[in-house]
Design goal:
With 233 residues, the chain is of the alpha+beta class. The chain has helices at residues 21-30, 55-64, 114-130, 148-157, 171-178, 210-222, and strands spanning 35-36, 73-80, 85-87, 93-95, 103-109, 135-141, 165-166, 184-185, 187-191, 196-202. It is built from 6 helices and 10 strands.
Length: 233
């Protein structure tokens, strides 16, 4: 498969929301949006093709990206991520395509990334509050060492709602970097039920906030069709 041609990412919106925890502030101080990651391997070349534009969904996501999630930016060129591959908690291969039919919040994180660690409890709460047959949080750990370390972090932090996924090759991150979506960690994609990435954010967000829940409601409501207009403030 060929990689998605690099695209110019839209200028990031200013995040007006409150950042959760001193660790997030430290992460933002270290880098504008998160912890910069050097490309170490070629990736699995699984970011392949563009997706049809959905102007209604784009406008709805843009309208809902406010407050604590104001830095979420709809993609100018949505792309298919269904063939992105990684491993589940039993070390078995899986992919985002296996979750097609659900809208997804896909988050790449690592134990050495302070902003990642700080936002994981909020992601756990988001999955507990919003996860159902139509939506799931998909956190993909990209630690290159022993799997015991990220699994221990789950136990230590009491992450009980989040599933555990891992890509120790960093191929997923490198694919998103080649697609001009990822520049560091954490990076999060909003993926519709058709397996198309529709929006992204580089850096942490307060994912259990009312603002985040409203944004997820827009994504969930889109399903495989057109989205409703964004809520009016």
């Amino acid at each position: 498969m060929s990689d998605l041609e690099p695209k110019t990412p839209p200028a990031p919106k200013r995040q007006t929301g409150r950042i959760v925890g001193l660790a997030l502030l430290a992460g933002l101080a270290a880098g504008a949006f998160g912890v910069y990651v050097m490309e170490t391997r070629s990736g699995n070349s699984s970011v392949a093709s563009t997706c049809p534009a959905k102007d209604g969904l784009r406008q709805a996501l843009d309208g809902a990206a406010r407050g604590e999630v104001a830095a979420v930016v709809p993609l100018d060129q949505p792309f298919d991520v269904s063939t992105i591959a990684f491993k589940d908690g039993n070390d078995q291969p899986t992919s985002l395509g296996a979750m097609k039919g659900q809208s997804l919040l896909v988050n790449l994180w690592a134990t050495w990334c302070a902003p990642c660690r700080a936002e994981m409890p909020a992601l756990d709460q988001l999955e507990r509050q919003a996860g159902d047959e139509s939506f799931a949080v998909v956190p993909i750990n990209i630690d290159m060492g022993d799997v015991a370390k990220p699994k221990a972090f789950y136990a230590e932090t009491n992450l009980t709602a989040l599933p555990f996924f891992r890509d120790e090759t960093m191929g997923v991150f490198n694919d998103l970097k080649k697609a001009s979506v990822a520049v560091g960690l954490p990076v999060t994609l909003l993926v519709d039920a058709d397996g198309c990435a529709r929006a992204a954010i580089n850096g942490p967000a307060h994912w259990s906030s009312p603002d985040a829940l409203a944004l997820v409601d827009v994504l969930k409501g889109a399903g495989g069709g057109s989205a409703a207009a964004p809520p009016q403030s």
